Amino acid sequence: MRRALDRLYDGCAALAACFMVGLLVAVLLSILGRQLHFNIPGIDAYAGYLMAGAGFLALAHTLKRGEHIRVTLLVGRLSGGAQRAAELWALFAATLLAALGAFYSVRLARQSWQFHDISTSNDATPLWIPQLTMALGTVVLAIAFVDEFVLELRGQRLPPLPEEASHNE
């Protein structure tokens, strides 16, 4: 199960990286279009879709690598059982919030598909297509938070500290 979850997080991160490359290509095409006097309709909208997709798809991988911003002002001052209880509470609350975000993201994409909602820009893209990346990213983030919560309950979670965070003064 651990390997399957790690592959899921890594797969979403790889897809996010592909979206970042696509974003770079879209921005470069937009710049070239202005310089060489040609227009690709909707390129700015597509760049926005790719940027949003990259951000949402990278959320779970970022969480699992300990790169999410954490405010440890209170938890860092606690020790022993109090610290573990605070971690469990924080992970439980984050899991609930991630599950709500996932639920409503999936619901939004489904409703956009049902109502044939399209982009208001000149690309007229069916909105459920770019919203799928948001839905997938939030669902995988919710899975990652459940994973972290279960690991903490079992006492197997080692909160990863990024190098940069440990050097802050």
From TrEMBL:
<feature type="domain" description="Tripartite ATP-independent periplasmic transporters DctQ component">
    <location>
        <begin position="24"/>
        <end position="154"/>
    </location>
</feature>
<dbReference type="Pfam" id="PF04290">
    <property type="entry name" value="DctQ"/>
</dbReference>
<comment type="similarity">
    <text>Belongs to the TRAP transporter small permease family.</text>
</comment>
<keyword id="KW-0997">Cell inner membrane</keyword>
<dbReference type="GO" id="GO:0005886">
    <property type="term" value="C:plasma membrane"/>
</dbReference>
<keyword id="KW-0472">Membrane</keyword>
<comment type="function">
    <text>Part of the tripartite ATP-independent periplasmic (TRAP) transport system.</text>
</comment>
<keyword id="KW-1133">Transmembrane helix</keyword>
<dbReference type="InterPro" id="IPR055348">
    <property type="entry name" value="DctQ"/>
</dbReference>
<feature type="transmembrane region" description="Helical">
    <location>
        <begin position="45"/>
        <end position="64"/>
    </location>
</feature>
<keyword id="KW-0813">Transport</keyword>
<feature type="transmembrane region" description="Helical">
    <location>
        <begin position="127"/>
        <end position="146"/>
    </location>
</feature>
<keyword id="KW-0812">Transmembrane</keyword>
<dbReference type="GO" id="GO:0015740">
    <property type="term" value="P:C4-dicarboxylate transport"/>
</dbReference>
<feature type="transmembrane region" description="Helical">
    <location>
        <begin position="85"/>
        <end position="107"/>
    </location>
</feature>
<comment type="subunit">
    <text>The complex comprises the extracytoplasmic solute receptor protein and the two transmembrane proteins.</text>
</comment>
<keyword id="KW-1003">Cell membrane</keyword>
<protein>
    <recommendedName>
        <fullName>TRAP transporter small permease protein</fullName>
    </recommendedName>
</protein>
<dbReference type="GO" id="GO:0022857">
    <property type="term" value="F:transmembrane transporter activity"/>
</dbReference>
<dbReference type="InterPro" id="IPR007387">
    <property type="entry name" value="TRAP_DctQ"/>
</dbReference>
<feature type="transmembrane region" description="Helical">
    <location>
        <begin position="12"/>
        <end position="33"/>
    </location>
</feature>
